[in-house]
Specification:
With 223 residues, the chain is α+β, with helices and mostly antiparallel strands. It has six helices and eight strands, in the order H-E-H-H-E-E-E-H-H-H-E-E-E-E. It is 32% helix and 26% strand. A five-stranded antiparallel sheet has the order 4-8-7-6-5, sandwiched between helices. A three-stranded antiparallel sheet has the order 1-3-2, with helices on both faces. Belongs to the P-Pant transferase superfamily. EntD family.
């Protein structure tokens, strides 16, 4: 089941990814089935969280089918990250109105991150927590700084998901500096410290889109 908001999110995100990455969307308000081994980690979750989780897994399986891969279970690991079937990697994100999932074969894509947020301004007090000084300096020179701060947050989430597959490291908001380029609708994500196998100063490059009240960020690195 795909509602209007989910369809809009899919259309917004699709141009950001090449054909090696499969993308699918679902409506978190609709009925979706999750496998028992997936739901095992959510026995104490709210019904809303369970619906969002099931919708995200449903989107992931739709994207796996797009790749020609079997629509297998995607359980939650002890680190709460999705455990993808062998040979595959992916990323799942959701808002209250849409779920998106992107998947790829490991032989084609090395890192993959996807994030989606409502395009609303970030509260000023949160900027001190989420944005490092260089990012706040950049924001101070922008119109609609609160909206750009939300984009920086989304790009950090996106980069975190992408790097985690290789580092397995839990890192804070200060570990990666985001530099958006409004003209090319891209961003640079630069490590501020060594996070093996990534070194301080190493930069990953992603893309973003805004529309329909959403911010979507993606980061895909070829194998």
């Amino acid at each position: 089941m795909t509602g209007a908001a989910a369809t809009g999110a899919l259309m917004l995100a699709a141009p950001l990814l090449d054909t090696r990455v499969a993308l699918a969307a679902t409506d978190p308000a609709g009925p979706h089935q999750a496998y028992p081994e997936e739901l095992a980690a959510l026995s104490r979750a709210t019904s809303k969280r369970q619906r969002e989780f099931a919708a995200g897994r449903a989107a992931a399986r739709l994207s796996l089918r797009e790749l020609g891969a079997p629509a297998l279970a995607i359980p939650m690991g002890t680190d709460r990250a999705p455990v993808w079937p062998p040979g595959l990697l992916g990323s799942i994100t959701h808002t209250d109105t849409a779920c998106l999932a992107a998947t790829a074969w490991e032989g084609e894509i090395r890192m993959l991150g996807l994030d989606m947020e409502p395009d609303t301004p970030m509260d000023t007090d949160l900027m001190e927590t989420i944005c490092i000084p260089a990012e706040r300096d950049w924001l101070a020179r922008q119109d609609m700084a609160g909206h750009w701060a939300k984009l920086i947050f989304s790009a950090k989430e996106c980069a975190y998901k992408a790097q985690y597959r290789l580092s397995r490291a839990l890192i804070g908001f200060d570990a990666i500096a985001i530099r958006p380029d409004p003209v090319s609708q891209s961003f640079a994500a630069t490590f501020q410290a060594d996070v093996p196998p990534f070194s301080r100063g190493e930069t990953l490059h992603g893309r973003f889109a805004r529309g329909g009240g959403l911010i979507i960020t993606v980061l895909a690195v070829a194998a």
